[in-house]
């Protein structure tokens, strides 16, 4: 078995290199995922599209020449599976862009004709895999329901966390109390609803000093997500109350989590939801959505609300920020819940999948 490691700063890249560090099998490193991530929403005839096709061809040719069975670490590498002459396993993190193809709701953006073609290749490649790893039961259910993949071909292997890095720390970034959000500004992240709920809190005198800290880039080149966000911020008169940090190195994240009064992720859809796990591991109480995979990750440690209900989100934040007994209880449960996830466990269960495939 050969494991593909994708070079980049995304969560799926993190999965590939964290797992590779713990799997005693050959690996091949590539920036192919980063390349096509930068080529979304371009036309078929653009020079960038022609260059991307050349990179695709070279990547497939390289994997076929190696001659080993391959583990592709994310679903967007499924497009290459259609052209491999070797068996392959593929990890599926979510079906967000599948839902953007024909769904009623836009989670990231509506793909253009070229992107639609490649997304269809992704999902055809997933269907052809000899085994599929889903990062949550929710993602597995989506694979069965949306792609018609038989239940018995899918193994659920949860993602992990580095507990030597993500732990409570005493060094904090800000002196003022703050609510923390970590992620992009795609529609599925539902950041607009958080801004509206935060605005409700700011109308109360006791939250006069409270800030909202938003960590992470706005998103890809598919749309001007930051401009859309700033329009909402300005309409709510929150320009001086919201702090945008953009990209923060992983090593610095524990300080942001540890200093926050509450971490909030009101996503409409998550295949797993790394940030809620990172927050719990750093001793930060979590308020999140009751949708998709998030209940699986949070368990009974956090408060889960309907992501469309602004009032409920504001009330949950209010409770955590004002009830010290509730907060302490959530921190304790969050630390316990986070210990159920580790990269060592992810690697061990991934090897079990390999063994099942080899035995067959």
Summary tags:
360 residues, 6-stranded parallel beta sheet, Rossmann fold, alpha/beta, 45% helix, 2 domains, 12 strands, single chain
Provide a descriptive summary of the structure in words:
This protein folds into two domains: 2-160 and 342-359, 3-Layer(aba) Sandwich (Rossmann fold), CATH 3.40.50; 178-338, Rossmann fold, CATH 3.40.50. Helices cover 45% and strands 14% of the residues. The chain has 15 helices and twelve strands. It has helices at 11-20, 32-37, 47-66, 78-81, 96-102, 113-128, 137-147, 191-202, 225-235, 253-259, 274-281, 294-298, 310-322, 324-338, 343-359; strands spanning 2-6, 27-30, 70-72, 88-92, 131-134, 154-156, 178-182, 211-215, 242-246, 262-265, 286-289, 303-305. It has a six-stranded parallel sheet with strand order 2-1-3-4-5-6. A six-stranded parallel sheet has the order 9-8-7-10-11-12, sandwiched between helices. Helix 8 crosses helix 13 and helix 11 (274-281) crosses helix 14 (324-338).
